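Q: What would this complex look like in 3D?
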Amino acid sequence: MSRKLLTLFILFIIPALVIAGCRPSTPATSPAGGAPAQPVVETVEVVRTVVVTVEVPVPGEAPAATPQVKIEVAQAPGFGDTLKAVQARGNVICGVNGQLPGFSFLDPQGNFSGFDADFCRALAAAIFGDPSKVEFRATTTQERFTVLQTGEIDVLMRNTTWTLVRDTELGLNFTATTFYDGQGIMVPKDSGIASLQDLEGGTICVQKGTTTELNLADVMATEGISYTPAVFDDVNATYGAYAEGRCDAVTSDKSQLSSVAKGLLPDPDNHVILDVTLSKEPLGPVVRHGDDQWLDIVKWTIFATFAAEEYGISSANVDEIRSSTENPELKRLLGLEGDLGAKLGLSNDFAYNIIKLVGNYSEIYDRSLGENTPTFIPRGLNSLYTNGGLLYSPPFR
Amino acid sequence: MTTTYSKANILPPPSESSTLWGWARKNLFKTWYDTLLTFFILGVLYALIRPFIAWAIGKAQWEVVQVNFRLLMVGQYPAAETWRAWLCLYLLAGILGLSLGVWARQKPWLSAILLLSPVLLVFYPDLSSEARNRLLGLALTALLAFAFGRWRGARLGRAAVILWVLYFPAVLIIIRGGGLLENLAPAVPTSLWGGLMLTFLLTVVGILFSFPLGVLLALGRRSSLPAARWVSITYIEVIRGVPLVTILFMSSVMVPLFLPSGVRPDRVLRAMIGITLFTAAYLAENVRGGLQAIPRGQFEAAHALGLSGFHTMALIILPQALRTVIPVIMGLFIALFKDTSLVATIGLLELLGISRSILAQPQYVSFQREVYLFISLIYWIFSYGMSYASRRLETRLGVGER
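A: Here is my prediction, written as structure tokens for the whole assembly.
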């Protein structure tokens, strides 16, 4: 008997030892171990040098005669690898939610559509000049970071809130915010409620134990509005109670209100989302640590859509503006002057391709979340900074 | 002392009335309280079902299913390549017709109705003429194969078995494409597989590969070699102690972390491996049950005949053991078919996953009932079909009779 037990014991111990032995050799990006990126930095052996040209402007001289000083900048080993891999493969692999109305979903023809899917296409347009060169990969909440860390996808374009922990500990980089989500409030259309103040003395349905509940209490206390929270255990019960008219309003993240909630309401068209935001949920594309070129490409692809809207360039008029403009910034943006694209490792007309083939930010937004769609969300914070929103592109120069 | 029976004492044999009314009178209206109960239950059923029927016919909007029918069936599989899915259906119709012709000789009209069922779908409104022709062709193929099977009879029995065995690998090759078939059928990456087709393929692969593995594990567990026995026991007990969803999560989230970066193992393949490994452990235990049910005398008789250990197993023990556990194994396979819906949790777009994606189409977000009802119907049809086939197989092989 004891011999049998011993055999069994050994059988368990050997795999355990093997697994334990393998553990440290796995990439340091493992989320479970929570290992920070530190070990990667320590094991850097090869330092790639990249030639970077630096323009030294000389006053009074034409740009063509600008003397160019070549300096060498040390880059981390992963620099440029992602773009090379993407170009060799011939498509960008883009992780999306796949089941979020308005953001990413399969249309009846079997193509991914929506706000996030369009930004994937913008990235493909920037790299290949062809928005169809995207392989969409539906990811679940649990696996979204792993598939990015392990290189199964090139970029995660999924409703993921930018937080400090995710930006650091998970070995990820948040590039830019494409959608400023936040907690919103939905009311029946005919209720006449238009602002938080109108909810004075009312009842608000909210899901139990979420940050949503706490945010609501905080904001209402700050604003000095008295209300009765009606707390429910799960999503279905919350919206069920709201649908039965047991509450004057229901609160959750705006993107959820526009999608999930409407799916659960019998008369989705009779409800509106108020133009107030109770919490910060910045959503945007995420890339791996370690390839700053790729980070820049994704970031500037997003900025190009912001800038295009700011300058009034859309897919409809981009050709006309390109042929007629005298504005040097527009010329640089559209690839007529300078070599902004080359600095990213792309062609100089990358921004032109994005605008021409996918559109500027407002076109992308209106296509999926605009007034004429069933998933209408008011622009709110997602307006240009010139319209009181938060969208602001650094200059293209 | 012998008892003599006069003719008057002998009662006539009880008459079994086989008419519907006779059956109803015997089972539903035998006494007054039977009648009362029958009407009461009928009333309750009516009250429960009527709103459902009213909803299904009047209020439900089946447009969401109609518009997304192709997605539900084959997912994102390229439209230009859907002929391959049809080809698999044609092969299935042919083999099914042949098998019914060979084996189901008692009630040919029943088989004929079954084989003609695709014709019923022709009357479905808004069907493209192409699909209509293909459905008609499907029924025709099945009927021709059926007639051929009846004509040639039992001589084709072995051929039918071989065809069934070859069918499933052939389906995998046809759907996957590539390789030698590159010109005819270009490779379709598994990331585009979806819908009912993916559900079906996951089940088929699970069954095909878990069966040999499960039998080996069962034999290993009863082996007298300690190494084989302990490896089998450890494997079976570890896998059986873990839920399937955990194994799927492991395969989708953990496995890539242990592999060198840049290696992108196929996700569908990973799910298939997970399902196969899981099912094999359960199957091994079922087969072991069958092995233990074989009386010791069988081993001894085989031994006395001078059969080697391998021959004893392959010719005497396994055929009997496997026949005993057919109902349990079929139950396991039906469960496996339904369990494939768990891969939706790792982001694969099989029947359930693709339904969720369809429900995210902004114009259809509120049609959850229609979509979920439709896919439950599909799950039911297939599960019941498998259950029915297994019962036929049991009768045929005389399980529990010999």
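A: To summarize the key features: Chain A has 15 helices and 17 strands. Chain A touches chain B at residues 7-8, 11-12, 22, 26-27, 30, 32, 85, 98-102, 104-108, 110, 135, 137-140, 142-143, 146-147, 149-152, 259-260, 262-266, 268, 373-375 (CB under 8 Å).
Q: Very helpful, thank you.
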